Amino acid sequence: MEKSLIIGAAGQIGTELVSQLRSRRGKNNIIAVDLRIDNLSSPCFELDAMNETALRDLVLKEGISEIYHLVAMLSVTGEKAPQKAWDLNMKTLFSVLDLAKEGLIKRIFWPSSIAVFGPSTPKIQTPQYCSMDPTTAYGISKLAGELWCQYYFKNYGVDVRSLRYPGLISWKTMPGGGTTDYAIDIFHSASRREEFISFLEPDTRLPMMYMDDAVRATIEIMEAESDAIRIRSSYNLAAVDFTPSELGIAIKKIKPEFEMSYSPDSRQAIAKSWPSSIDDTQAKLDWGWKSRYNFLSIVKLMTDKI
Ligand SMILES: NC(=O)c1ccc[n+]([C@@H]2O[C@H](COP(=O)([O-])OP(=O)(O)OC[C@H]3O[C@@H](n4cnc5c(N)ncnc54)[C@H](O)[C@@H]3O)[C@@H](O)[C@H]2O)c1
């Protein structure tokens, strides 16, 4: 059995991806690393992905053949330190791409984001190929990263696979500083019976996805035959789209005491520059992607679990 390394394993996606991969492929074949490992179970190691030598040593020592590289500074956090976001997001990606270029690992998963799109992008059913002018340091790093992935595939044969995740909704781990975090925070406020104050305007429609769908998409694209992966920058991926107002109304139907109000902040400008919905036809055609969770099932699951 091949061994996989998950970098950034303690984050919102990593926590759930590690657990899914371990149940499919056996605990000892999935190595989890992060800056902090208190919430991870072994095999796991403390590792700073900026330390290229430590990363290389671990890959060689553990006989890793596949890396899921999840480390990034996200959209909101990245705007507070744009240069740091660029350095972290790009340097760590190059370290992983270079390990594959040298033949030390066989396959890479690296997530991109809807943050690669910008104000000039068609907003409704955003196509795979279109105008892209990201406004955040995070989005710029993801768009550059996509092009470097494609470059390493074309020029060095690196088998790198990528998805443009929409906002991901989960209950196990708190989100890590993104513009779509409101769609998780709202369920925590509802469960504490507190009024929820949305940092986005009521009609800001964004593409979203339940975490189980995102983790399944990640595993499916990584398990697909290499020939099926015809896009080596990053695939559009979609499930649902909704506004804060629609989400509030749906929660109120389950919890009639729930109240929300609006106090938009700087995150509104980021959200406004992103698509409202995504066309993921290419992912469906190439490797058979299909989402399973719709808006109402996500609301029901989140209110039950939190
Ligand atoms: N969560 C979303 O809604 C979403 C949407 C689109 C794309 N993505 C992408 O998916 C990936 C994972 O996102 P997430 O939401 O799990 O992020 P997160 O912030 O929850 O997790 C990132 C993890 O990386 C770790 N990390 C940071 N710097 C590190 C370093 N130098 N060395 C080792 N570990 C380090 C953090 O400790 C954290 O546990 C990111 O690339 C992100 O851009 C996420």
Write the CATH fold name of the largest domain: Rossmann fold
Bound molecules: nicotinamide-adenine-dinucleotide
Second CATH tier, the architecture of the largest domain? 3-Layer(aba) Sandwich
How is the biggest beta sheet arranged? 6 strands, parallel
| Uncertain spans | none
Specify the structural class.
alpha/beta
CATH class of the largest domain: Alpha Beta
> Portion of residues in helices?
40-55%
Question: What is the CATH superfamily of the largest domain?
Answer: NAD(P)-binding Rossmann-like Domain
Give an overview in words.
The chain is α/β, with parallel strands linked by helices and 306 residues long. Helix content is 42%, strand content 16%. The protein is built from 11 helices and 14 strands. Helix 6 runs parallel beside helix 8 (244-254). It starts with a strand and ends with a helix. The relative contact order is 0.14. It binds nicotinamide-adenine-dinucleotide. Residues 7-8, 10-14, 34-36, 47-50, 70-72, 74, 111, 113, 165, 167-168, 175-176, 178, 180 line the site of nicotinamide-adenine-dinucleotide.
What are the salient characteristics of this protein?
306 residues; three-stranded parallel beta sheet; alpha/beta; 16% strand; 42% helix; 11 helices; UDP-galactose 4-epimerase, domain 1; single chain; binds nicotinamide-adenine-dinucleotide; six-stranded parallel beta sheet; Rossmann fold
